[in-house]
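During the second half of the funding period, the structural biology subgroup turned its attention to how the target accommodates small molecules. The most pressing case was fe (ii) ion, which had performed well in the primary screen but for which no bound structure existed. We therefore specified the complex as follows and requested a full 3D prediction, including the ligand pose.
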Amino acid sequence: MTGLFRFAHLTDPHLPLLLGDMRGPSLTTVKRLSGLLSWQRKRQHIHRPEILEATVADIRAHEPRHVVLTGDIVNVALPAEFARAEEWLATLGNAGEVTIVPGNHDTYVETPWSAGAGRWHAYMTGDEGMAPGRSPEGMPFPFVRVRGPVAFVGLSTAVSTPLFSAAGRIGANQLALLGPILEKLGRQGLLRVVLLHHPPARGASSRRKGLKDHEALRGVLAQAGAELVLHGHTHMAMFDRLAGPRAAIPVLAPSSASALDARHESARWHLIDVARLPTGQWRLQVTVRGLDPATKRFRGEGRFVLMLDRLNTAT
Ligand SMILES: [Fe+2]
């Protein structure tokens, strides 16, 4: 067995929103007020900083070579939140060791790239620099980062939406670029891991919260192929399969990395060990690490292996 590479996936940390973050009337929009209300009523009791701290400590203890984070770092996209998130990201690792894609809460209201999620651009920059493509919000995506045998392909589904909507969209530009990128990486024999915030599987999210162009994305993946898709958004651990050119593409999501929620799902993260067998097959071992809400300690909740027969490409 060769090429062992270990990486971690966490999502939806939703760093604490502080009352002092909301300064100045120009920052106050109806959508932000609704988000603030939701935070005060409910979300601040679920997304706990001490739980996120425990998640990060547990990830570090497993010494992954890379960490991926699939969005919703902040809540209502206030300038103070972006600044604090920048500091927090540095505690997770340096920008070369950590890859992120934004979530809908990171574009909660329309914000210029440089003042919003763009503050974290170092974590979303490809190996060849800033991506030439553009998301519907004008952000530079998709980007590619090769680490060990893995090619991480970052997509943005984050768009600012009307009140009560948490939908996402990839947009025609990213979709047009994605197919050729995946085909090229496939020809290079890399394990292609696609990162996005919203779930791509049919029915994984309601219409109000879902990915608008999920069907188009599945079309690209079915043709160009990928070995794994990782997402967040639902705050629930999920496993799906999408059609690929030769074999199904596994799709994985852990619950929110900061959740302490005895009624639903508390924090989880995934440890993924990649190995290449002498037969050429990929062996992906996924370890689910989960928070025990009673003790507030992480434990292994289970382990499964994905055997990928060969590169999932059309040719
Ligand atoms: Fe979220």
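Two results from this model are relevant to the next phase. Residues 157 and 169 are 5 Å apart (CA to CA). Helices lie at 30-46, 49-61, 79-92, 171-187, 214-224.
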